[in-house]
Amino acid sequence: MAETVADPRHREVRQGLLSKSVTTLAQGVQWLLLALLFSILTEWAGMLWWWPEEGLQHSRSMLEAEIDYLVSDFRKSVLTSSPAEFAKTVADKTYTVLFELTGLVDLIAWLSAPPAPDEGGVKFWIHALFKPIAEFVIAAMQVTQVFSVRLAILTLATPVFVLFSLVALVDGFVKRDLRRWGGGRESSFVYHWAKRSALPLLVLSWVIYLALPFSLHPTFIVLPFAVLFALSVSVTASTFKKYL
C-alpha cells in the first residue's frame, strides 16, 4: 500500500507573540471604528425619523450628559485624579486632531458661508449642495466627541474589570482545588465554552456602550458586563484540568 506523503509546501504557520499582539490590536481598532460608524449612522437616522425636532441638540445633549455623569459620580479614579477633566481633554484632543488639524473645520465654515454676489457660480452650487447636509456633518463631529468621551470612561473603568477578574480567578482556582482533592469530575466542554466567552464579553461591553444612540449611565453597562466577564473567568479557572 502506497503511503501518503505530505506536501512540504503546505506548512502550518503559527503566529508568534508579536504577530498575535498586532492582530489583536488591529481587530480592536476595527471594532472601535465599526462602533463609531454605527453610532454616526444611528444619529443620522434619528435626525431623520426619531428625533427630527431636536436635530443637532440631541448629540449636544448626549455630550453634556456624558460629562455630567463623570462630574457627579466619578470624581476619583485609579488612573487619574480628575476623571471629568481627563474625559474633556480626550474629547478636545480628538476634536483638534480630527477636525482642526485636518482643516475640516475651516472647510465647513467656508462651505456654510453664503456666497458673495461677485463670486462665481461654483461656490453657489457647492453651498447649495452642502446646506441640506450641514447639520448631519456637524452631528457626526459631535457624535465623534461623544464617542471619545465614552472611550475615556471605559478606559477609566478598566480597573473594575481587572479587580473583578482577579477575585473570580482566585475563586475559580479554589473551586478547582476542591474538585481536584474531592475527586470531582471535569468537563472540557464547559472549560472551552467559558474560555472563549471571556474576550467577546469584554469586547461586547465596549461596542454596546460606544454605539448607544442615547445617554446611559456607564454603571448600567460596566457592572453587568464586569460580572459576566468575572463569571466566565471563574468558570474557566474552576474547570481547568486537574492535572497538568
Topology:
Blueprint lengths: L16 H34 L5 H18 L9 H18 L3 H9 L8 H10 L3 H23 L1 H25 L5 H24 L7 H20 L6
Helix pairs in contact: 1-6, 1-8, 2-3, 2-6, 3-6, 6-8, 7-9, 8-9
Please work out how many helical segments DSSP would assign.
9
Tell me the domain tally.
2
SSE string: HHHHHHHHH
The overall strand count is: 0
Largest sheet: none
State which percent range the strand residues make up: under 5%
Beginning-to-end CA distance, first to last residue:
39 Å
Structural class: mainly alpha
Q: Label the overall shape.
A: elongated
In helices, the fraction of residues equals over 70%
Task: Tell me about this structure.
By secondary structure, the protein is mostly helical. It has helices at residues 17-50, 56-73, 83-100, 104-112, 121-130, 134-156, 158-182, 188-211, 219-238. It folds into 2 domains: 31-37 and 51-156, no CATH class; 157-244, no CATH class. The chain is 74% helix and 0% strand. It is elongated, with a radius of gyration of 25 Å. It starts with 16 loop residues before the first helix and ends in a 6-residue tail after the last helix.
